[in-house]
Amino acid sequence: MPPPNVFPSFKSDEAKERYIAAYDALLRDWPVPYQELNLATRLGPTYVIASGPADAPPLVLLPSFAGSATIWRLNVARLSRHYRIYAVDVIGQPGKSLTNRRLRNRHEYANWLVDLLDALDVQRASIVGCSFGGFLALNQASLTPERVDRVVLINPVGTFASQFWKLFYSARIKRPIVKLGRRLVGSKKIPSLADLGIRPPRDAKWSALMATMMSSVSKLSIITPSVLSGRELRSIRTPALLLIGDAEKLYDPVAMLTLAQKRMPTLKGGIVPDADHIAAMAQPDDVNERIIRFLQSDDDAMDVVSQ
């Protein structure tokens, strides 16, 4: 009997070794002391980079799709002064977490994160999520509110409105056309985020990891991020902050912020200047301060985070 699928899967053993080597090279430049944790969950072992004082309030960081925990490298030094940081490799995506089956729905992600909090011995935590991680953060606040203090959503996908066709075009049409064109002209240029219309990240070493990922990974396990219903959004009582980079390409930043606050009236929000889809990397100092102000603000004074 053939062995079960494992996600993420790599094109070869050599491709996996290249990816892990690029990941570990990034970790060697992690700006603060850290621990590497491999924690058991119902979906498989989950890899976490833990930083900051062990007795500080817990803060879970969830990356963009395929970004891995290393996407937060430019943020952890500032955030870990105040929090015990848990930067997570999302199960089924590129990184060091592993699962042996495909995820089916957002409820499975919520159960997985509950398992992760239990393994960390954390009863409640605040969650910061970027892109797909932003969707997961608000999903958690909706489905398991007793485990979530506050959430920060940075350029989330799905959640408030669908970007299915734009995501489909980028992943299934634009990228294959670019790859075909390169083969036809004999180009040996390494795949990059620019193929998907994303400008080069501020963190060049993370960009190199992503380029290695794009040429090494063959299969992932992921769901399409849902659009939460108006009833569900209105029922969320967890304080939430939405931050959108002004150079976001998946949707109009101001229009999305307006729509999100209309659909979820308790939501706080703001636009991050000179920042694209990965706003926390594009403008780490600005985003760090907004996160800290929001997490530390009183409920009656949370409007300051949108300034």
TrEMBL record:
Residue ranges of domain AB hydrolase-1 in the record: 59-289
SUPFAM superfamilies according to UniProt: alpha/beta-Hydrolases (SSF53474)
Domain of life the protein comes from: Bacteria
InterPro entries recorded: AB_hydrolase_1, AB_hydrolase_fold
One of the Pfam families matching this protein, by short name: Abhydrolase_6
Signal peptide: none
Protein name, UniProt field: Carboxylesterase
Organism: Collimonas arenae
Source taxonomy: Bacteria, Pseudomonadati, Pseudomonadota, Betaproteobacteria, Burkholderiales
